[in-house]
Write a structure and sequence with these properties.
alpha+beta; Thiol Ester Dehydrase, Chain A; 4 helices
């Protein structure tokens, strides 16, 4: 599935989803598709970062702040990022992306994203 299709899915699902309170957690369910894989047949680390980017729009939509963000002409961009890869994700494995707002100050919002491996991975067999 192309990433633009995933983005459209996330935005539409977010508009239909339950509203969140500021410290609630957004949960998105995905599956590892063949175009997400690298030469080692697990999810590419760059693709994982791209999919983490889908958690923030879902959070903004479900918090109900998109209209205010647009009115103020804010650009929700990542100012800094730290990541730790703990497990690889195998082809066709389902997983959840959990995103939440950790805090904010007068200039920045601080969010956290995590993806604990959800289901038993599909094993690649030769």
């Amino acid at each position: 599935m192309n990433l633009i299709l995933r983005l459209l899915y996330v935005l539409l699902a977010g508009m239909r989803g339950a509203r969140l309170q500021p410290l609630d957690q957004s949960v998105l369910k995905f599956r590892v598709f063949p175009n997400d894989l690298d030469t080692n047949f697990h999810m590419n680390n760059g693709r994982y970062l791209t999919l983490v980017d889908l958690g923030r729009p879902d959070l903004l939509v479900r918090l109900g702040v998109v209209r205010e963000v647009r009115r103020r002409r804010w650009n929700p961009v990542v100012g800094s990022l730290a990541i730790r890869y703990r497990r690889s994700l195998a082809p066709w494995q389902s997983y959840e992306l959990r995103t939440r707002l950790v805090g904010w100050d007068d200039r920045w919002f601080f969010s956290s994203s995590a993806s604990p491996a959800a289901a038993t991975p599909w094993r690649w067999r030769w």
